[in-house]
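Chapter review. Work through the record for Pilus assembly PilX family protein before attempting the end-of-chapter questions.
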Amino acid sequence: MVLIITLIMLTMLTMLGVIALRSATSEERIASNIRDRQLVFEYAESGLRKCQDALLAGTFTGTARARPTSADPNYWAVASNWNGNAAVVDYSPSSREFSVKCMAENIWLGTGQVGGGFLLESRYGYRATVRASRSDGGTEVMVQSVFPSL
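Structure tokens for Pilus assembly PilX family protein:
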């Protein structure tokens, strides 16, 4: 009788151990995914800053795409438009662990709220969209900024 109770207790302890191990593994994966997303987001923000600075300084090495039309307002949202496109500049780090690309578009800005400020006159500006991802096809982040030209 004692042997049966001991075997039942050992089986229960083994099941608890397996459950604890699975839980720890899941939490580790979640933490790793969060870390990856944060790192890719930081690369995207850095690429956006480089892209904005290059557009404003006139040193953008690509050709900003003509103003979007109502028929094609979200050109940046189509994945195939990011390859072999003159409006896309590669800001990937030298390690090539991450891919960071910026697409620039000329846009018309009306008066009103723009980029945290207030635009008093209508003028041309830019929409800079940065797409950052892990080169192995993992996490992908896109950030976008709209701002007036100088």
